[in-house]
Design goal:
globular, mainly beta, 17-stranded antiparallel sheet
Length: 299
């Protein structure tokens, strides 16, 4: 598998989250923390569903010669992708705009799951993920935008626009992205949540150049007032601030270090979420009104 593809698959650790869904909860040693724990898990799960779509779009872009200014065949063609999330027999179509190749490849990729299929991880996917790319892949200034057309995974419906922009310091070997979500909404079982966010992601290779050692460091965008804002399924208007960079490691179901602050806008209540100091154990520490509790996700 390509190194760039390995990076995209490590943008956030989504596999364990996506196969479970919003039924996830946490175990904590104080009943009054169940509500706060639920907020923390739901916010992470919503982000993970979008990150999964980002990752699949990135895999499609990474596998396309056109995005490097290579192949210049006109018209649409089917892509063959080596990733078990792309169900057998689905359509992944690339349509290339040849007007500015090779200096500025522009095109569209449509990932069409049709009326539903089961992927290699047991997830049921439906509908379409639409990808528009502009610029050579993983190069500074290149942009990938992602939209959804009745797209569902395990009966969870995603909407909104995801925009991934390679930052000026980005290189093919060590990409740096700004990731924005606008007009985001996620719906399941009669619940609807809304969300917008802006993150800056930096890939750090492991010392042995082993993809399993790769880390992704996530901060909020420098010019953003907060990392994320939305309304959860309880109707709570919230904002999230990344107070210490979040570190993700491949194969771990959530960040392995870093902290963020979840703020209920109307009440001003703050929940501090601490992901630890580098251990992949799916546990977090919550601080609410000065009270500290350890919480472990049941993913």
């Amino acid at each position: 598998m390509m190194r760039n593809q390995s990076f995209l698959m490590r943008m956030v650790a989504v596999a364990a989250v996506i196969s479970v869904g919003f039924g996830s909860s946490c175990s904590e040693d104080e009943p009054q923390f169940s509500q706060e724990a639920g907020y923390a898990v739901e916010e992470s799960n919503v982000d993970a569903y979008y990150a999964d779509a980002d990752d699949m779009a990135g895999v499609a872009v990474a596998e396309s010669e056109e995005t490097e200014g290579g192949r210049t065949t006109s018209g649409a063609r089917q892509l063959e992708l080596n990733d078990d999330r792309f169900c057998n027999g689905i359509s992944v179509e690339l349509d290339l705009d040849l007007s500015q190749l090779p200096a500025l490849p522009i095109g569209d990729i449509t990932i069409n799951f049709g009326d539903g299929c089961e992927d290699g991880r047991g997830n049921i996917r439906k509908g379409k993920i639409k990808v528009h790319f502009r610029g050579r892949k993983f190069r500074p200034g290149s942009v990938i935008s992602i939209t959804f057309d009745n797209y569902q995974i395990n009966n969870v419906t995603l909407n909104g626009v995801r925009t991934l922009t390679n930052l000026p310091a980005s290189t093919v070997g060590a990409p740096k992205f700004q990731i924005e979500l606008t007009d985001g909404s996620v719906a399941w079982d009669g619940n609807v949540v809304t969300r917008e966010h802006c993150f800056s992601n930096t890939w750090e290779r492991g010392a042995l150049l082993d993809p399993t050692d790769d880390l992704v460091i996530v901060t909020q965008c420098p010019d953003a007032d907060q990392a994320a804002e939305g309304v959860n399924r309880k109707g709570i208007h919230y904002r999230v601030y990344i107070t210490k960079p979040l570190t993700y490691k491949r194969g771990c179901p959530m960040a392995i270090s870093g902290t963020k602050k979840f703020v209920e806008v109307d009440s001003g209540k703050e929940i501090i979420i601490d992901y630890g100091s580098g251990t992949c154990d799916a546990s977090i520490t919550l601080t609410v009104n000065g009270n500290i509790r350890n919480v472990r996700s049941r993913r």
